[in-house]
């Protein structure tokens, strides 16, 4: 959906061909989510099928072969996309969340090792993003500003992921501690052990 809406937004600026659409999408997002020509072509064909995009009748001045432009419905879709917030009620599948959810429910998986390996990777990514951020000019152009905002998103996501991994590690440790205490209470003979006789007090002896 993000690629589809992104291409609609780009075509709202001017007609473009498949190659130019890919180039603009990559440039605006800093190449963070690179598209291949086949993906762009397939998405454009679906937009044509849905009546949002149509081929430009004559050759486009930029020289790009087979340029496309938005239909009236396409412009309405672009305007609607800018106005509505991104739907977070139905989260996309997160491989790391799925991986750890399966890990904590699998008896043969070393969850601590999984968390440690991911923390190392997340910290490496965070360092790389921070390094790229430091290379940006103090007075960014519009293209640099777009790339800067994408980098900010990646930095915040990496920082949040590291904090979440800390939370996962602590939660697993608490669960193991509680399970150990419960197992100790339920161990055979734990509740059947007769009480240790208390030494008689001086009053009892009298």
What does it look like?
- With 206 residues, the chain is an all-alpha fold.
- It folds into 2 domains: 3-83, Arc Repressor Mutant, subunit A; 95-184.
- It has 8 helices and 2 strands; from the N terminus they run αααββααααα.
- The chain has a two-stranded antiparallel sheet.
Task: Describe the secondary-structure layout.
Elements: H1 2-11, H2 18-28, H3 37-49, E1 53-55, E2 68-70, H4 72-83, H5 95-103, H6 111-134, H7 142-185, H8 202-205
Antiparallel strand pairs: 1-2
Helix pairs in contact: 1-3, 2-3, 6-7
Domain Transcription regulator PadR N-terminal: 8-78
Domain Transcription regulator PadR C-terminal: 92-171
GO molecular function: DNA binding
Task: Estimate nothing, just give the exact number of structural domains.
Answer: 2
- Uncertain parts: 193-206
Distance between the termini: 88 Å
Strand content: under 5%
Strand order of the largest sheet: 1-2
- Count of individual helical segments: 8
Shape, per Cα inertia axes: elongated
In angstroms, what is the radius of gyration?
29 Å
* Mean of all residue-level pLDDT scores: 85
* Class from helix and strand fractions: mainly alpha
Secondary-structure element sequence?
HHHEEHHHHH
What is the number of beta strands? 2
Helix content: 55-70%
Largest sheet: 2 strands, antiparallel
